[in-house]
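Dissemination and training. As part of the outreach component of the grant, students in the summer workshop were shown how a complex can be specified as a set of sequence lines and then modelled as a single object. The example used during the hands-on session is reproduced here so that future cohorts can follow it. Participants entered these lines:
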Amino acid sequence: MKSIVMNLKLLGLGALVLLAGCEPPPNDTVQHGYRGTGMVQVYNPSTVEKNADLHAAPVALPAPAPDGTRADKVYKNVKVLGNLSVGEFTRLMVSMSSWVAPNEGCTYCHNPANFAEDSKYTKVVARRMIEMTQHINADWQPHVAQTGVTCYTCHRGQPVPAQVWFKEPAQNTGADFIGDAAGQNKAAASVNLSSLPSDPFTPFLLESKDIRVNGPKALPTDNRHSIKQAEWTYGLMTHMSTALGVNCTYCHNTQSFSNWNGNPPQRAKAWHGIRMARDLNLDYMEPLQSTFPPNRLGPLGDTAKVNCATCHQGAYKPLNGAQMAKDFPELLRPAERTVASK
Ligand code: HEC
Ligand code: HEC
Ligand code: HEC
Ligand code: HEC
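and obtained this result:
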């Protein structure tokens, strides 16, 4: 008798261990389109709670006086931040240290014996990153709006952002029967462990291939889109969904993926996001290739590049929409476009 009770207890314990691997109900659902269209987002409260720290924005240092001597009158080698007051300049340096290299501090970018010299590649990269941040906030308003971005949006206290991508070497180009597998069947994290092509970024976030599935007509004159292109398209869409922590109906009416009618405004935002990521990769990341040391480059020698996850990291608005950038007016636009008559 005693052993039966023991066995039952063990069974109960076993069931508990097994069930611990399941997601506990209830999940939250939020209706996102017309009733009956199935446009609903599903959230697991425990995942939301677990990621709360990741999506929390750090508190900004108090704003210093905007008057006083300009930085370019005091320092020797300032090319982009010269119009700031010395107080504003120092506050940005301290903030950049905490956003990008909190453990190393100033010396991550500077030779402490001479702050003016550009001997560390990190300083040269950082200067271009300041310009990139200003460009995002000023020229990509249709995407980033008033939320904007700071270094922290991508870096989150790390020199190399957690979510970046590199080009992948071609597979199976030898004389076998498989041909080019186009990165498929690798269960890659970039496409949420699906069998889709693992690099949908080179065609769309670097090159500007058409983001289309093969059309409804049979003849090549009506249907210029290959199955391979459709697979890349689904790969990118899977990345976009995972990067934002949403499902397809956050942007699409599933009645028709290609039709824009009845789609939420988020789809237009995403359209700009794709063009923005491409612009950042082409104009800022790729040209830095010769500045980065070899250990920072990918298997094909390219720089780390930006995709949706670099900023979003699983939230539909990075940092849950915290408006960090407004506390750093110097990051909102390039200096020569500042309206103030300093
Ligand atoms: C992530 C890289 C980075 C970090 C970390 C950083 N800086 Fe800088 N610093 C720069 C860049 C880039 C410039 C040049 C800005 C320009 O060209 O307008 C600069 C310029 C300076 C200058 C001007 C030097 C001169 O004479 O030209 C001083 C002073 C300075 N930083 C101080 C600091 C201090 C103090 C810290 C730590 C609290 C710090 N920096 C942390 C990137 C960094
Ligand atoms: C849109 C995303 C994004 C923003 C915004 C951004 N960065 Fe970066 N940053 C990157 C990526 C991607 C890399 C390449 C990672 C690598 O170093 O291989 C990078 C690299 C760097 C590096 C080189 C680190 C290393 O160890 O190789 C520094 C320094 C840096 N960024 C500073 C900054 C500063 C300062 C700002 C804000 C003024 C900033 N970044 C804003 C995406 C961003
Ligand atoms: C964050 C918004 C967003 C999410 C989430 C999203 N899409 Fe898209 N989708 C778009 C945008 C924007 C386009 C058009 C891209 C372009 O033309 O540059 C598009 C295009 C497509 C196309 C091509 C349609 C055509 O004209 O041939 C398909 C198919 C598609 N999406 C399927 C999906 C699937 C499946 C999912 C879920 C795994 C998904 N999308 C998730 C925004 C989104
Ligand atoms: C440089 C950082 C950055 C990158 C890269 C980025 N986004 Fe965003 N995204 C933002 C910011 C900031 C917002 C918040 C804008 C706002 O408050 O309206 C946003 C908002 C959005 C929204 C609107 C969310 C909502 O519910 O209002 C969508 C959709 C979106 N992004 C999709 C994408 C897609 C898809 C990609 C990749 C192709 C992408 N983003 C890449 C910074 C970025």
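Residues 211-213, 233-234, 237-238, 240-241, 244, 246, 248, 250-252, 257-258, 266-267, 270-271, 274 surround heme C (ligand 3) (CB under 6 Å). Students were then asked to discuss how this feature might be tested experimentally.
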